[in-house]
Specification:
The protein is α+β, with helices and mostly antiparallel strands. Helices cover 23% and strands 26% of the residues. Helix 1 runs antiparallel to helix 2 (62-75) and helix 3 packs antiparallel against helix 4 (169-181). The chain is globular.
């Protein structure tokens, strides 16, 4: 579940932001012994997406898909972190077509050509794993396929920009450059976030370049990278339900997400699907 773009406070052992406008809160640094728990949570989140993939088809409803995800998560000894979070009433976020993020499951049957973003966050033994994937329902046209491919490539570019001693802003730079060269736009009003024992914590991970909100990346930081990419303008609006975020111009949107952790030697993807 993405975080709205603003700075917020949290507690714990921390590293300081060091951007030109360094007013942001400090960032929790985790210990090596915290990594195994994050791996387990991340693997379960990824396994939930793998489980639901064959069920995303014409005629399925997002409410049924949400129920299947919740059952799978609970059967594996975890709980769906979005359920009850600030009053959110479902286990997952299901965001079709022009819905950018935080879409609430409903009873509308999926149709051929739909794009469906499924965002999974599990809490397992007190630790969170968060990932998202865009699914194509039936046959889709070339433009929709390109939107999906560019968004997934943008996620990979953002992860490739992560290194100990590097800059947080490098993630946004890499994502924005790739997306805009392809003729799409990056959502600016929602972003990735720190994660661990808390669902949302610093840092906020922007998917566009903003060097005024920057920091040095250090081993022990855990966060999500989750670019939301629009086929049209980057502007969004939130519906009256208080959750559903849609493109302002009605264009399509896609999203892919991983949870990562910085090590002394690089970056680990906690939500990487296991090889078949």
């Amino acid at each position: 579940m993405s975080k709205i773009y603003h700075w917020f406070n949290s507690g714990g052992r921390r590293a300081k932001h060091t951007g030109r406008n360094a007013r942001a809160p400090s960032v929790p640094l985790h210990r090596p012994q915290d990594f195994p728990a994050m791996r387990r949570a991340g693997r379960l989140a990824a396994a939930t997406l793998a489980m639901i993939a064959p069920l995303v088809r014409e005629g399925a409803t997002t409410r049924a898909l949400d129920a299947a995800c919740e059952s799978f998560i609970r059967d594996h000894g975890a709980r769906p972190a979005p359920l009850g979070y600030q009053g959110y009433p479902f286990a997952t976020c299901m965001s079709p077509n022009e819905v950018v993020c935080h879409g609430m499951p409903d009873d509308r049957p999926l149709a051929a050509g739909d794009l469906l973003k499924i965002d999974i966050t599990v809490e397992l033994d007190g630790w969170h794993g968060d990932c998202c994937r865009t699914f194509a329902v039936g046959e889709i046209d070339v433009r929709r396929r390109l939107l999906m491919e560019v968004t997934e490539a943008a996620l990979a570019a953002g992860i490739a920009a992560v290194r100990p001693g590097g800059r947080l802003s490098a993630i946004g730079r890499a994502v924005q450059e790739l997306v805009e060269v392809a003729g799409f736009s990056v959502v600016r009003s929602y972003c990735g976030h720190g994660i661990g024992r808390e669902f949302h914590q610093p840092p906020q991970v922007l998917h566009h370049l903003d060097e005024d909100r920057d920091l040095t990346l250090l081993p022990g930081m855990f966060f999500t990278i989750e670019p939301m990419v629009n086929d049209g303008g980057h502007a969004t609006r939130r519906l009256d339900d208080g959750w559903t975020v849609v493109t302002a111009d009605g264009g399509l949107s896609a999203q892919f997400e991983h949870t990562v952790g910085l090590t002394e030697g690089g970056v680990e993807i906690f939500t990487q699907p296991r090889a078949a």
